[in-house]
Specification:
Elements: H1 2-21, H2 30-59, E1 70-81, E2 84-94, E3 99-105, E4 108-119, E5 122-133, E6 144-149, E7 152-156, E8 173-178
Antiparallel strand pairs: 1-2, 1-8, 2-3, 3-4, 4-5, 5-6, 6-7, 7-8
Length: 180
Amino acid sequence: MRLYQHKIIIHLVCLVFIVLSCKDNKTPSSKNKKIESEINHSSITTVTSTIDTQNKNKQEKNNIDKKWLGTYTARFAYGQIGGINAGWDLEIKITNDQTIASGNGYQIGFIDELRAIAEGNRLILKHKENRQGYTLGEKMNPEFILIEDHGIYYVQSEWIDSDIITKPEAKGFKISKDHL
């Protein structure tokens, strides 16, 4: 009789297992509903956060005097290295929408987006985002400073090392400006 009872118990356990495993999976349990709700909330939060960031980036324009708008360029020469005139070119382009600095030349290459803050005759350019190349600008605060003195512009930056032939004046290195 004992063997018979074990068989019945095993059959009942199997039957219960089959019944439970055939439960309609389309009807979520309360636990599944909670997880699903958390996933949907998280997805909505992520999408909202992404949209907020995109809108902030669109709205974050240069809020500076128009006198600063333009393209600034300078060449920093090291002289002859291996029979080649070595150096690098700096370009800072300031528009109503953004400020982009790029350096290209001997052992240097970067494109950075900057935040512009005007302080009198100085424009402080702080690092916002590296777009390409070397990321050293992330550690510079500020990355560049432009100084205007009676229509002559100067630049100061840690990017400009002491090995270049051109030496700075009291306010920095001269930089040419082309108006937009």
